[in-house]
Design brief:
alpha/beta; Rossmann fold; Tyrosyl-Transfer RNA Synthetase; elongated; RNA-binding
Length: about 425
RNA sequence: GGGGGGGUUCCCGAGUGGCCAAAGGGAACAGACUGUAAAUCUGUCGUCUACGACUUCGGAGGUUCGAAUCCUCCCCCCCCCA
């Protein structure tokens, strides 16, 4: 759970640590920001999009950004874009995003906040985090009033020069998306005015939006505020973070089990380990450098440290231990299979003709369809109790019980145990 | 409002009456090799009651023995003109 992270004395400043950890892409005024953060408690914010009721690993970088910030005694604000999610940010997208409805956004907000509280200490203290919904200050506006009070500060000429807009000029973007920048700038201005927020962080695709907010704060509030962006994180193979065959890797245990979550980190590309240790864990610099020095098969130890650290933050120590234990049982010959992913099934299902293996594989979530399951069998990828199955019409019967469970495996990495209950 | 181009299986992108479940590439998955990595080679990659059947090519109709391919209407996107 969220322990208020402690300051790390290994770095001279927040910005230094961000640089070392790979969060630093560009900053509007590094020198003055560093000075400001040395002198006083700075309130900073990052926006999250409540497009689902759970965050996924793609959001871990911004989350960790806030975590580090709080560790240095500053005050993090997480904005959930209730209003802006209804619009859709064009940055980095190639086409119009589906617009979420009010109700789903409300639901998603709650889920996201619960997850963030695993990372950030919320509360009323000076460096306690805040969670705000920009719908609270955006929704009340009427169009004419907003145009007159806010819109007049924006130059279309300048907006057109922002990369986020420029890149979309080719493929086209709707007016509603074009306005996203204005809304985000307005968020920053309001946070600056009402919460004393001085810094906005975000992915580098947010640079233009952040700069717009800085301009607006200067004009309206006459305050100097700052922006800092982190790089957009891709895996070594050029994929977005958190994509697997099964879909996104979620922080919600219901959507992605702690076991699968743990395995995701174990299976990262060698080339990503160092970068990910820095970005996604709060392990001390010295320890990370030690892990980075590992070569060959020993890199797995670094991956374990990575998986352990991230899973512990997201799912807690107990779930992490279980996941690790299951992994040991499946991959390292440990005999304790009690935490291996499993499902229950009454013994009666295996009577007489037995339960079709194809159906069992699909039911266990190891395969998406029976056709796919059939192909896997043809390719010799399916094992029951460690034995390769070649017969597509194979049925599971009582003969397959082994101490009350049936051990299924597809490929090398996908395992599932059916627990037989009376 | 006028003119032009376009919407294809996860993505990109061929196909313009049967030889199309639909080329090619990417991603992904599996096998071999390995370190639960990468690279490489091989295979797979719509669903099913599976040597056959069924459903797909923006949506709805129609022509035809037969359509992703032709016609009609509708929706959406891009470009040029007004």
């Amino acid at each position: 759970m969220s322990q208020a992270a402690q300051p790390t004395p290994e770095f001279s400043s927040f910005v230094e640590e961000m640089k070392w950890r790979g969060f630093f892409e560009q900053c509007t005024d590094e020198e003055n920001l560093t000075q400001l953060m040395a002198d006083e408690t700075v309130t900073a914010y990052i926006g999250f999009d409540p497009t689902a009721d759970s965050l996924h690993v793609g959001s871990l970088v911004p989350i960790m950004g806030l975590v580090h910030l709080q560790a240095y005694g500053h005050k993090p604000i997480a904005i959930v874009g209730g209003a802006t999610a209804m619009v859709g940010d064009p940055s980095g997208k190639t086409e119009l995003r589906k617009m979420a409805t009010l109700e789903t956004i409300e639901e998603n907000l709650a889920g996201v906040k619960a997850q963030l509280s695993h990372f950030i200490r919320f509360g009323d203290g000076p460096s306690d985090g805040l969670m705000l919904n920009n719908a609270d200050w955006l929704r009340q506006w009427g169009y004419i009033d907003f145009l007159r009070d806010v819109g007049r500060h924006f130059s279309v000429n300048q907006m057109l020069t922002r990369d986020s807009v420029k890149s979309r000029l080719e493929t086209g973007l709707s007016f509603i998306e074009f306005n996203y920048m204005i809304l985000q700038a307005y968020d920053f201005m309001v946070l600056n005015r009402d919460y004393g927020c001085r810094l906005q962080m975000g992915g580098n695709d947010q640079w233009g939006n952040i700069c717009s907010g800085i301009d607006l704060s200067r004009r309206v509030n006459r305050n100097e505020v700052y922006g800092l962006t982190y790089p957009l994180i891709m895996t070594a193979s050029g994929e977005k973070m958190g994509k697997t065959a099964a879909g996104a890797v979620w922080l919600d245990a219901q959507r992605t089990s702690p076991y699968d979550f743990f395995q995701y980190w174990i299976n990262v590309d060698d080339r990503d380990v160092s970068r990910f240790l820095r970005l996604y864990t709060r392990l001390p610099k010295a320890e990370i450098e030690q892990l980075e020095a590992l070569t060959g098969a020993d890199i797995r130890d670094a991956k374990k440290a990575l998986a352990r650290a991230v899973t512990t933050t997201v799912h807690g120590a107990e779930a992490t231990a279980d996941a690790e234990k299951a992994a040991a049982a499946l991959f390292s010959g440990n005999t304790d299979a009690s935490t291996v992913p499993s499902s229950e099934r009454p013994a009666a299902d295996f009577a007489a003709p037995g339960l079709g293996l194809l159906d069992a594989l699909v039911a266990a979530g190891l395969q998406k369809s029976k056709g796919e399951a059939r192909r896997m069998i043809r390719q010799g990828a399916v094992r029951v109790a460690g034995e390769v199955v070649k017969d597509e019409s194979r049925a599971l019967t009582a003969a397959d019980f082994d101490e009350g469970r049936i051990v299924l495996q597809v490929g090398k990495k996908r395992h599932h145990h059916i627990l037989v209950i009376p």
